[in-house]
Specification:
Rossmann fold; ten-stranded mixed beta sheet; binds S-adenosylmethionine
Length: 438
């Protein structure tokens, strides 16, 4: 175990207790709060390995999140030890992601560009890494440095490497890590290239941002037999964590993990277009009925992911409002290639009416995915896998010889509206970008 940590504090020359104050705010309660958080994660089955329980008890998360942002009344507000001392500390030791940096988003607005992930998601990923004492690990997405500190607590500084594309984040993380007693290797670089020194090899790679494609450098810099753990997304929202066994040559294969993960997309990935979507005119569309009764197939993550694998790039979806009542009357999907569909929410004897217009029939992709998913007993994520070769990414059910899909071109899907929330398609299509939560 490396690093002095600040769990119970240690006396410094000025008589204060290091790690026990942030500015003028007493943080003496943090060990109890950390203990309570770990107890909660253990009780809910999110963490079991003693070494990760110890790391989460002993690494002071508050030193890595000196402030965070929360959305109140549609405005981002800063929460700091000075503005809300008690709430700040309690929130830091709550099982929630905390937004730690705001910036300009791809579609123009201001939103999260870095965050400290939900502790349960972090614990789940750390356990899934299956680390041994002698392993070296590369993290993509240093952010606050908290995850790097947990890794350094477990493996020692020398075995931990972490990169972030934002040099300011790396500088701040370096200082906080040092203050907490850790000195892993850090670099400011585009994580798509892995660690900047391409000669270095790792046993494990953990990405804390999502990708549309697994960069070849990750599978090349991870030794044969090593693991690459990453949130693979079609577009910005459909997909999940996958653990790939590297062949050491830029290729690999492995299964998706059960559970849910929604990391912000790695900067540099192709984002869906924000304009160029077709006007929908039902009179010019093919009309039929569907037996799919689910109003929100995107709330069934595996089915929705499989559907997205057969859709053209840039699918956005939302609701069509009734012109008089202004209540949702139909679900809509549309693509910049001119494809669109609307599916009535009204159920008749024949099912629900569908209007579809090509070149791709989008609702047919949803139906076909449902048929395959159902024919295979509605598999959970862990029955799905991914094979990455030099030329393509292949998604499969129950093995590469089972039903399989080649990953479509990047940026296929614009994010889903949060469950229960209806949004008319007004150009944002329910798009919520750069969100990370569990
Ligand atoms: C969810 S945050 C990481 C949280 C971090 N692991 C922690 O413990 O605080 C995602 C991070 O990925 C970084 N990132 C985004 N695109 C990147 C890229 N192309 N290369 C490296 N880092 C990137 C962001 O700057 C952000 O800090």
């Amino acid at each position: 175990m490396a690093g002095i940590g600040h769990r119970r504090g240690h006396d410094s020359s000025d008589g204060s207790v290091a790690g026990e104050r942030t500015g003028n705010v007493a943080v003496t309660a943090w060990p109890d709060l950390a203990d309570a958080l770990v107890a909660e994660l253990v009780a809910s089955g999110k963490v079991s390995a003693p070494e990760w329980q110890a790391a989460m008890r002993e690494v002071p998360r508050h030193e890595f999140v000196p402030k965070f942002y929360e959305l109140r009344d549609r405005e981002w507000r800063e929460v700091t030890p000075e503005s809300e001392p008690v709430r700040w500390l309690e929130r830091v030791y709550t099982n929630k992601p905390l937004v730690t940096q705001l910036g300009e988003l791809h579609h123009g607005g201001i939103g999260p560009t870095s965050s400290s992930s939900a502790p349960s998601l972090m614990a789940r990923m750390l356990e899934a890494l299956d680390l041994h004492d002698t392993h070296t690990v590369l993290e993509i997405g240093t952010g606050t440095g908290y995850n790097a500190a947990l890794l350094a607590h477990r493996l020692g500084d020398e075995r931990v490497f972490s990169v972030d594309i934002d040099p300011n984040l790396v500088d701040a993380a370096r200082q906080r890590l040092r203050h907490a007693g850790y000195e892993p290797h850090l670099a400011a670089a585009d994580g798509a290239g892995g660690w900047p020194d391409d000669a270095v090899r790792f046993d494990r790679l953990i990405a804390t941002c999502a990708v549309n494609r697994v960069p070849p450098a990750w599978l090349r810099q991870t030794r044969a037999g090593g693991l690459v753990l990453v949130d693979l997304k079609v577009g910005t929202s459909a997909g999940n964590l996958v653990a790939l066994h590297s062949n050491g040559d830029g290729t690999g294969q492995g299964h998706f993990l059960d559970g849910h993960s929604a990391f912000m997309l790695m900067r540099g990935e192709t984002h869906p277009p924000i304009s160029g979507y077709p006007q929908r005119n039902r009179r010019q569309a093919h009309r039929r009925h569907t037996s799919v009764m689910e109003e929100r197939p995107w709330e069934s993550p595996v089915w929705w992911f499989l559907a997205c694998l057969s859709m053209p790039p840039g699918v956005r979806f939302g609701y069509t409002l009734h012109p008089v009542t202004e209540q949702p009357a139909a679900v809509s999907l549309s693509c910049p290639d001119g494809s669109w569909c609307e599916v009535s929410l009204e159920v008749t004897r024949d099912g629900r009416a569908v209007w579809e217009s090509g070149p791709s029939y989008l609702w047919s992709a949803v139906e076909q995915a449902r048929d395959i998913w159902t024919a295979h007993d509605q598999p959970e994520w862990s029955r799905l896998g991914l094979t990455v070769t030099a030329g393509e990414h292949l998604v499969w059910i129950d093995g590469p010889t089972g039903p399989r899909w080649v990953l479509p071109p990047s940026s296929s899907v614009v994010g889903a509206p949060p469950p229960g929330e209806c949004s008319a398609e007004r150009g944002d299509g329910g798009h919520h970008e750069q969100q990370e939560c569990e």
